[in-house]
C-alpha cells in the first residue's frame, strides 16, 4: 500500500492546497503491473498497489531508483500499456488508449529526423487536419516559447541535444494537451543545459497551466520543478512517500540555495542512497 506524506511537516501540510473531488484530474487507483505472465517467463512485478491522486495543473515529480517502475507507470497513464490490476481515471473516465489530451516527451527526443523543427511541431496538427496557416502560427508561437526562433528550418541532426529537447517539448505542447508526461526528458543532456531547461520547463508549464508528470532520477531536479515529489520504492514500485514543495512560482535559480531546498534534497539523498547503491 502507498505510504503517504510521511515527510510533510505540520506547517507545510497546512499550506497544502485543499483538494476537492472536482480538482482531481488523474486518479491512480491501486495500480499493479506484472510483466512476463506467459508460462515460459519469470514474472516481473513492476508496480504493486500504486495509488495517487493528481490535481489539475499540478506538477508531480516521480522520483525513484532505476527499475522501480516510473516509466511503466507513465506508460500506463499515457495509455501505451494496460495495468495488470487497478485502474487510472482521467476526469472520471478510465484511460484505455493514448489520446491527444496526454502527450509524452522522452529522453531521446523522438523527433522525426527527416523533418525540420517546424514540420516536427506541426506534425500532430497536420494529422488532425488543421489548416496550414493555423498550424504554422501555433508552431511559430511554440518555437518562440522554447527559444528556438531562427531554427525553424533546421533538421534534428543540425541541432544540439538541448535544442532537440526544446523542439520535442514544443511538439508535445502543440496539440494543447491537458497533461504533459515527461520521461527523464533531460537525462541525456549535459549538466548546464539540464539546469537551463529545468528553469524553462518550470516557466512553460506554469504559464501553460498544464498538469505535468515528470519522471526523474535527479533529486534536485525533482524538488526544483515539482509541486509534489512522489518518491517510489525499489521494485515492486509503490508510493513510498510524498514531499510537498512550498517554494513559490515562478521557480528561480536562487531557490536552489534556499535552506528548505538544500535540506530536503539532502534528506531525500540520505533516504534513497542505500537503494541507489544497491541498484548499481
Ligand atoms: N516490457 C517489459 N518486459 C519485462 N519487464 C519489463 C518491461 N518493461 C519494464 N520491465 C521491468 O519492469 C521494471 C520496471 O521498469 P521501468 O522501466 O518502469 O522502471 P524505471 O523506474 O522507469 O527504471 P529507469 O529509471 O531505469 O528507467 C524493471 O525491472 C524492468 O526491467
TrEMBL record:
<dbReference type="InterPro" id="IPR050166">
    <property type="entry name" value="ABC_transporter_ATP-bind"/>
</dbReference>
<dbReference type="GO" id="GO:0005524">
    <property type="term" value="F:ATP binding"/>
</dbReference>
<dbReference type="InterPro" id="IPR003439">
    <property type="entry name" value="ABC_transporter-like_ATP-bd"/>
</dbReference>
<comment type="similarity">
    <text>Belongs to the ABC transporter superfamily.</text>
</comment>
<keyword id="KW-0067">ATP-binding</keyword>
<feature type="region of interest" description="Disordered">
    <location>
        <begin position="1"/>
        <end position="20"/>
    </location>
</feature>
<keyword id="KW-0813">Transport</keyword>
<keyword id="KW-0547">Nucleotide-binding</keyword>
<feature type="domain" description="ABC transporter">
    <location>
        <begin position="26"/>
        <end position="259"/>
    </location>
</feature>
<dbReference type="InterPro" id="IPR027417">
    <property type="entry name" value="P-loop_NTPase"/>
</dbReference>
<dbReference type="InterPro" id="IPR003593">
    <property type="entry name" value="AAA+_ATPase"/>
</dbReference>
<dbReference type="GO" id="GO:0016887">
    <property type="term" value="F:ATP hydrolysis activity"/>
</dbReference>
<protein>
    <submittedName>
        <fullName>ABC transporter ATP-binding protein</fullName>
    </submittedName>
</protein>
<dbReference type="InterPro" id="IPR017871">
    <property type="entry name" value="ABC_transporter-like_CS"/>
</dbReference>
<dbReference type="Pfam" id="PF00005">
    <property type="entry name" value="ABC_tran"/>
</dbReference>
Amino acid at each position: 500500500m502507498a505510504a503517504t506524506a510521511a515527510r510533510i511537516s505540520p506547517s507545510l501540510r497546512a499550506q497544502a492546497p485543499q483538494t476537492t473531488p472536482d480538482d482531481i484530474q488523474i486518479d491512480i487507483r491501486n495500480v499493479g503491473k506484472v510483466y512476463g505472465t506467459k508460462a515460459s517467463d519469470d514474472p516481473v512485478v513492476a508496480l504493486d498497489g500504486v495509488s495517487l491522486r493528481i490535481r489539475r495543473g499540478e506538477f508531480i515529480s516521480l522520483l525513484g531508483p532505476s527499475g522501480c517502475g516510473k516509466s511503466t507507470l507513465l506508460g500506463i497513464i499515457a495509455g501505451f500499456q494496460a495495468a495488470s490490476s487497478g485502474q487510472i481515471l482521467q476526469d472520471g473516465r478510465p484511460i484505455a488508449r493514448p489520446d491527444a489530451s496526454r502527450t509524452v516527451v522522452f529522453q531521446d527526443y523522438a523527433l522525426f529526423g527527416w523533418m525540420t523543427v517546424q514540420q516536427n511541431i506541426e506534425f500532430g496538427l497536420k494529422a488532425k487536419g488543421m489548416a496550414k496557416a493555423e498550424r504554422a502560427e501555433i508552431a511559430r508561437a511554440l518555437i518562440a516559447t522554447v527559444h528556438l526562433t531562427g531554427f525553424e528550418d533546421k533538421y534534428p541532426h543540425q541541432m544540439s541535444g538541448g535544442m532537440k529537447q526544446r523542439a520535442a517539448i514544443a511538439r508535445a505542447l502543440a496539440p494543447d494537451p491537458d497533461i504533459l508526461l515527461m520521461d527523464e526528458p533531460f537525462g541525456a543532456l549535459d549538466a548546464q543545459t539540464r539546469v537551463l531547461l529545468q528553469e524553462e520547463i518550470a516557466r512553460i508549464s506554469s504559464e501553460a497551466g498544464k498538469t505535468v508528470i515528470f519522471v526523474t532520477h535527479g533529486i534536485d531536479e525533482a524538488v526544483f520543478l515539482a509541486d509534489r515529489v512522489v518518491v517510489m520504492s525499489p521494485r515492486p514500485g509503490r508510493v513510498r512517500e510524498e514531499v510537498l514543495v512550498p517554494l513559490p512560482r515562478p521557480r528561480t535559480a536562487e531557490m536552489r540555495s534556499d535552506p528548505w531546498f538544500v535540506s530536503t534534497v539532502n534528506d531525500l539523498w540520505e533516504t534513497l542512497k542505500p537503494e541507489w547503491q544497491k541498484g548499481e
